[in-house]
Design a protein that fits this description.
Shape: globular
Order of helices and strands: HEHEHEHEEHEHEHHE
Strand order of the largest sheet: 1-4-3-2-5-6-8-7
Distance between the termini: 44 Å
Number of strands: 8
Bound molecules: S-adenosylmethionine
CATH class: Alpha Beta
CATH topology: Rossmann fold
Structural class: alpha/beta
Strand content: 15-25%
């Protein structure tokens, strides 16, 4: 592993706004159900950013909504380091980052603990539907953890992932709230959708169209 990556991985272990979990069979489980009472110390809504990379959405939304709590999830520690460092420098008390596989989300959240999910430029996983973060398998993982009516928001440059997600929404009879086929033509001034991430920057440079879906499971 390159030295800088190694140093960042070490550093996030001691950062006050980062959690890290790798032993999914631990005899000492994560204290689920304490995000409000124990960690944020308030009763504000809990919002997740999945596959957050450098966590731009958690910080961007965290500034737009100081009365909501944000947790960015990713497995890559060197990317999370960038996000966590900036959140600390910007004094964002309502933002945390969590290094773990999303596949184990139910080890970190209690039933009905999450108010909203943002999935921002996830890997489209073109070859394996079950690995897509909006696949029925992942929706089944999120379902019990979400409050009733909680929205799941997907921003993507992948026409395949966008169409796949629309099919899942239709097949499963989910509630589609917003369907934007070209974010920057249709809603150029939307403050939530204008937050730019590292991957989005790369896609925009290549002239790719950015799409957005917002839906709820019930
Ligand atoms: C294409 S990047 C997008 C990062 C960021 N959202 C952005 O727009 O810049 C996808 C991210 O998903 C993370 N990821 C993919 N599968 C994951 C999983 N099962 N658990 C945790 N992180 C995952 C990768 O580590 C990577 O940082």
């Amino acid at each position: 592993m390159p030295k800088i990556k190694h140093e960042r991985m070490e550093e996030i272990r001691h950062m006050e706004n980062v959690f890290e979990w790798s032993d999914y069979n631990s005899a000492h489980p994560f204290p689920k159900g304490t995000w409000n009472s124990g960690i944020f110390g308030n009763d504000h809504p809990i919002v997740l950013e999945l596959a957050c990379g450098k966590g731009e959405y958690s910080r961007g939304l965290g500034k737009l909504y100081p009365n909501k709590n944000f947790i960015g999830f990713d497995i890559k520690g060197n990317r999370l380091w960038v996000g966590a460092k900036q959140a600390l420098e910007q004094g964002l008390d309502n933002v945390r980052y969590f290094r773990a596989y999303i596949d184990h989300l139910d080890q970190f959240f209690d039933e009905n603990e999450i108010d909203e999910i943002w999935i921002i430029f996830p890997d489209p996983q073109l070859k394996k539907d079950r690995k897509k973060l909006t696949s029925p398998k992942f929706l089944q993982l999120y379902r019990p953890l979400l409050k009733k009516g909680a929205t799941i928001n997907l921003k993507t440059d992948s026409p395949e992932l966008y169409e796949f997600t629309k099919e899942v929404i239709e097949e499963q009879g989910l509630n589609l709230h917003r369907d934007i086929g070209d974010v920057y033509s249709e809603c150029p001034d939307d403050p939530e959708l204008s937050i730019r991430t590292y991957y989005e920057g790369m896609h925009l440079k290549k002239g790719r169209t950015i799409r957005f879906l917002s839906f709820s499971l019930d």
